[in-house]
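Retro notes, structure queue

What went well: the backlog is down to a handful. What didn't: a couple of records were mislabeled last round, so from now on we paste the full input next to the output in the thread. Example, using alcohol dehydrogenase from Albimonas donghaensis:
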Amino acid sequence: MRSYALVEFGKPFEAIDREDPTPTGTEVVVRVRRSGVCHSDVHIWEGFFDYGDGQKFKMEDRGMKLPHTLGHEILGEVVAAGPDATDAPIGKTMLVHPWIGCGECAACEEGDENLCAKMAALGVVRPGGFATHVVVPHSKFLVDIGDVDPSVAAPYACSGVTVFTALKKLKPIRDDEWLAVMGAGGLGLAAITIAKAMGFKNVISVDMGQEKLSAAVDMGADRTIDVRDAGEGALDELRKASEGKLMAVLDTVGAEATSKLGFEGLTKAGKYVIVGLHGGTFKAPLPKLPQMALTVAGSYVGSCNDLRELMELVKAGKVKSVPITERPLEKAYDTVVDLLEGNVVGRVVLTTD
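Corresponding output:
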């Protein structure tokens, strides 16, 4: 097998060849056919997440040891199984749920391994999908994609399930109320089309630049706001666009500017949910939270059951695909750099086919 591994934070990946993995116990080996590139991969490649005020959460503090293979949006053919993996779907192409926990805590026992305090996700702690093969601890983390295009299906393992789970937290919402999606990158575009599939009637997309906002309209956004054009009037534009009924904000960027705009735009009893990891600090007047009965929440990826639920919507044809660009696996590093520099519209999926 060959992997494109991070050997030094912030430096180009290196190709590493080794023997194909031999599964043990309940493990299954997946020959990677597709591997999506996520903005989280940028932060992991850099080696830290920005906590604001000069604080950084470093990847070595999360248990990462170099060299390490990134990539957590993985789809591929099951080619081998350990002796205890009796139900492994050998020969079938499956989507991999990468958010794997300890398997022993209450969260894991309840099926919420993404909430495990000792989560060891593929591509974060365990070797990931920027490789020709990946070892998955158990076949229960394999999700059927039906007839969905493999390149379309791969990003649902992270960007898709992340926004799907967050949108659940923003419901219920009335038909005359509005959802604002901050950011129209791969995550934001997925949020728009999935929100429409989930029954959100009115969606505003907020970003900079008409190329991304045009893509947001294609995904189903009813209104858009270009904050670069709006400038200091962005908050007034948001209130006007939402007709004073901004009940839900999904922040797929997670920057100080997007959190401030989204939070301040909420109407009474509104909810602000953040999934983006750009960095910084969140600041708000504390009395405003009870006075306006506002909710502020974080949402982290999703469970395997969430992913299966989302894929049923996708297989039923209810979710429009975000723009997908295919690149060969060896372009993993170049793609991370393009994401860092803002040169990607939609999602890039690496392929070995």
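Agreed that this is the format going forward. Reviewer comment attached to the example: The two ends are 15 Å apart (CA to CA).
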